[in-house]
Input
Amino acid sequence: DTGVSQDPRHKITKRGQNVTFRCDPISEHNRLYWYRQTLGQGPEFLTYFQNEAQLEKSRLLSDRFSAERPKGSFSTLEIQRTEQGDSAMYLCASSPTQGNTIYFGEGSWLTVV
Amino acid sequence: DQQVKQNSPSLSVQEGRISILNCDYTNSMFDYFLWYKKYPAEGPTFLISISSIKDKNEDGRFTVFLNKSAKHLSLHIVPSQPGDSAVYFCAAGGYTGNQFYFGTGTSLTVIP
Output
């Protein structure tokens, strides 16, 4: 059990560029979540997958945000045409089954300049 | 719509004493609750959970109490240690685990 892994840990990008974050969940966890956290706030739910199916995406912040989990293992979160307001920590989490605890990765810091 | 609230942004406690962190929620459909600890620049680390069929759950120095009628839960840390200094988040959701709602956190400082 190596924990939830996220890459990159830090990303600085210019406004208008696209960025992609990758998440590798704990092996055999079939649920995967993306959250966003800004300073002074708690994690904010964005989307989640059960295996490769994206079961909830209505909380994605805009149509510039998209997530995939093509083979039910790792996932990617893409932000297109980044804006300064996208600067935040993007957290990935996984859980083994319904109702169980979710375990977070170390997060990916995004700074849009 | 802040469905989970932690009304104390910060708390300071002497080493060895009890730390009590509070959390309130508004949605009576929530039936699974978690506490996380977070250090700066790291992801939240799971501490302890409780389901609505219980009113107390213990794990070592950490105990979570749930008062469903008041929609309130609390985390007790006894005895508090300097290494406990961190931001603590409570989270609430349904047992289906579709999504969890987090509070804004309480920053705990344990003074040696």
About this structure: Chain A touches chain B at residues 4, 6, 31, 33, 40-45, 48, 55-56, 59, 91, 95, 97-107, 109 (CB under 8 Å). The two ends of chain A are 36 Å apart (CA to CA). Residues 40 and 88 of chain A are 11 Å apart (CA to CA).
